[in-house]
What we know:
- The complex is a heterodimer.
- By secondary structure, chain A is of the alpha+beta class.
- Chain A is about 50% helix and about 20% strand.
- Chain A contains 20 helices and 20 strands.
- Chain A is rod-shaped and about 230 Å long.
- Chain B is built from 5 helices and 6 strands, in the order βαβαβαβαβαβ.
- Chains A and B meet through α14, α15, α16 and α17 of A and α1, α4 and α5 of B.
Amino acid sequence: MKVEKEKNPPSPYAGFRSRAEEQLQVKQVGQPHPARSSADMQRLVHELEVHQIELEMQNEELLQARDELDLTLDKYSELFDSGPVGYLTLGPDAVITAVSLSSADLLGVTRSRLLGRRFDHFLAHESRPPFAALMEKVFSSPEKAVSELALLKEGQAQLFVRIEAVAASSGRECCLAMIDLTERRRMEEALLQNKRRYRAVVEDQTELITRFRPDGSYTFVNQAFCRFFAKGAGELIGSNWRPGAMAEDLPAIEFQLSQLSPEHPVAVIEHRVISGCGEERWMQFINRAFFDLEGRLVETQCVGRDITERKRAEITLAESQALLNSVIESTSDVIWSVDPVTFGISSFNLSLSEYLFSRYGIRIRCGMRPEEIFPPGDFVEKWRGLYRRTLEEGPFTVEYAVYAGNSVFELTFNPLRRNGTVFGVSVFGKEITARKQAEETLKRYARRLIVLEEELRKRIAMELHDDVGQELTALGLNLAYLDKCLPVEIMDKFRPVLEDSRQLTKEISCSVRNLMVELRPPQLDEYGLASALRCYGEQYAQRSGIAVSVEVDPDFPRLPGKIDPALFRITQEALNNVAKHAAATKVLIFLGNDGRRTRLLIRDDGKGFVPQDASLQPMGSGWGLTIMRERAELVGASFRLETARGEGTSIIVEIPG
Amino acid sequence: MPISILIVDDHARIREGLRRHLEMQEDFTVVGEAANGREGVAQAELLRPDVILMDVAMPVMDGIEATRLICRRLPQAKILILSIYNSADHCCRAMDSGALGYVLKESAAEEVVTAARTIMKGDHYFGAGVAGFQ
């Protein structure tokens, strides 16, 4: 509180002259003034005048000093009343004799109400004994006494204050300085709680937590750390972390720790340690360095977790990856993958690289798009189409003739997926040029074989007709002649034999005719496929007991060249299979032509089969399907098999045109 | 008057066998033979036989073409086809060409006489094994 000065106060020296004149009168009583000459009078006046000036000067200084004292008084008053520290003076009985405004505010009572009251009345019960001890010490010793006490502030919770007391020079009072510690106490308590919580968190962690000095000596380890290394905290604190790490890993660890700085205080280091049970484990430590104001490393906190399983998985994965890479790089097949958006190359193997460079001088690299690999035009669009098809339809395989060369590849396209999302297209390519050439050669041989077979069949059929058939006819006529011409008595003896011979001749003729039809029905060349199928169907029905119906479109045309024999042979083979395997009662043969394509259908009501099983049949039975398919392909026809167990079998052959 | 018969077949043994077989019949006389269709046509024009036994598969000219020509030139000619084939197509083609009868060669010994007499009367004859195609 600032002491305000009165405006224009009366001069404190105002009564001095009247008192001085009174004192002079008293002094001059009984002492009359001596006679003085004029010179003496002048000298005395001069002395008085000088003295007066001296007095005025002294007075001026006194006034100045008084003003300064006033200012100082104001300052100290302000400091006493309003400073951050509360001041009191107490008597030996703890009665408050003087109190600053700060103290009053701290105690929550007006200054006027505090004066004369005992200070210890404002103390918490548990603080009164230490206060009493402080007071005793103050009044018994010149030394300062200090104590931290709890105050009871009216209407509020306890305050905590630090009291420093010293006895006054008079010895009858003591001066107290009271510092509010409440906020500090509260912060200390909060800090303590935080420490307790932090410690609980740290100790409950499954991760290893430690701190160490720049020299590597531990200053803190949590329970998890102790358990891992099978040592107590007491044993670990002060020891060094280095012996716990694998020696081969130390240089790398040291280097990474040396890189810690105030700008980069965190380093994640993975290395091996020896656990408490002697096992080598991989650990990941997150090291955070703490620096002082000068940037010097003070301490490093380290949080670690066991990543052994992950490391082992990484090692296994790396080994698998290396093995896969070696397989991919060692194969002669070309393998690559492309980006699903740009179709740029994202990976490729050595075989592809070597193939493109050796054949076309192209140095392939990641990122290359189709237009950078192939010449402009159809090739680029074709490849883009293949990639798009993969993305839209899924995996497929095609045979691809490489441009500007005689290579043929079997390419398998697959979409690459990760977590259900397509991230690329892979292509596996196997060069099948030799195989295709062999297939073409085989096809040529097969075609030639079929042609030769047909020619042979035709020749044999002709020879059967022209030779065996005619001669059997002549034989039959001769036997009939004998029957008519030989004498009755001889004929009676040989008639049975003759009759048997004539019957045999007929049967052989019939067999020869059937064989001719089987080999090459004359209708095929003379009347066309429909006629040949009708004839063959009738013969087949008689032979096998399976009903055959042949349905032909009314305007079914004669088919050109080799198509008739091919379709006939397919039907023949199909009927053979029906007789052998189908257990059918009837077969439908349908021939149709709608102007766009010719269609041959052979359908039976037999037991059907699983197509895959046909390939497992012994040689000679499963080959029928293969032969039919080959004959169809040779004349440019499509071949389709529809069958299922218990549902019969249908063979559909279609030729465009 | 015996029935005059011309035999047209490219196999000599069959011609010989048929001749022998037919000449056992008192009402048949074989007036000529031909080894192919062209000869058969020429012989038919020359000899004007009552019945012509015609094989189908022959060189130079087959029996169907020869039958067609003979029927055009000699409308009164009665032709009996002798064939190994028993298919409806063969039979129909033969009938379409003008033949009156069709007999399988394997049954020729039993049926050729009856067949020749039948077609001589102007009727059609289809031998056993061919009858189903009537």
